[in-house]
Specification:
This protein is α/β, with parallel strands linked by helices. The chain is built from six helices and six strands, in the order βαβββαββαααα. A six-stranded mixed beta sheet has the order 2-3-1-4-5-6, sandwiched between helices. Helix 3 packs across helix 6.
Length: 180
């Protein structure tokens, strides 16, 4: 098993944190190998950002994502920069309220992460955690238990309950879309 995951959005959405949490879940709690890297636009907050994670059952020989198998896109600019070239065999999760475009070739799962984070949880800032929940429920890339532990390790003190609720919301959304 090997996944090459590309997260993209704009600065301030937690794109880098998402990759870190996913890598942590894989290595620390699911016994897998992972490599994570990131890129920021010159504007930092509000500018383009991306991060990648390679997760494998075997040691990762080359740390750069060459052909993503999974995309998590949280902005239209992120889709235009990274999603247009998605291969037919890839899976793409898009934040349906923020990404207007859709891929032509690959399977696309629409997750209203920001909208649901705002409406259900009252905090759009946890949309990235909602997307992580949708990612694990639609792919099985890491276990729910591993992701929950990694989220708890990674979020600011005092926000643990909110972030776990965001993760569960994302899992529900991902299962609903996967089974549709």
């Amino acid at each position: 098993m090997k996944y090459e995951v590309l997260f993209s959005g704009f600065g301030g959405q937690g794109i880098i944190l998402s990759a870190v949490v996913l890598g942590r879940a894989a290595t620390m709690y699911d016994g897998k190998y992972a490599v994570q890297s990131q890129s920021y636009g010159p504007e930092a907050r509000g500018g383009a950002s991306s991060s990648t994670v390679i997760i494998s059952d075997d040691p990762v020989q080359y740390p750069k994502v060459l052909k993503p198998t999974v995309y998590v896109i949280m902005s239209e600019a992120g889709f235009l920069k990274f999603g247009l070239g998605a291969s037919e065999s890839a899976l793409m999760l898009v934040d349906s309220g923020l990404v207007q475009s859709r891929p032509e070739k690959c399977r696309c799962i629409e997750i209203p992460a920001t909208k649901q984070a705002k409406e259900v949880l009252g905090k759009p800032i946890v949309a990235n955690i909602v997307m992580l929940g949708a990612l694990i429920s639609s792919t099985g890339i890491v276990s729910e238990a591993a992701m929950q532990k990694a989220v708890l390790d990674s979020v600011p003190k005092g926000t643990e309950d909110l972030n776990i609720r965001a993760l569960r919301l994302g899992i529900e959304l991902g299962l609903k879309e996967r089974d549709a």
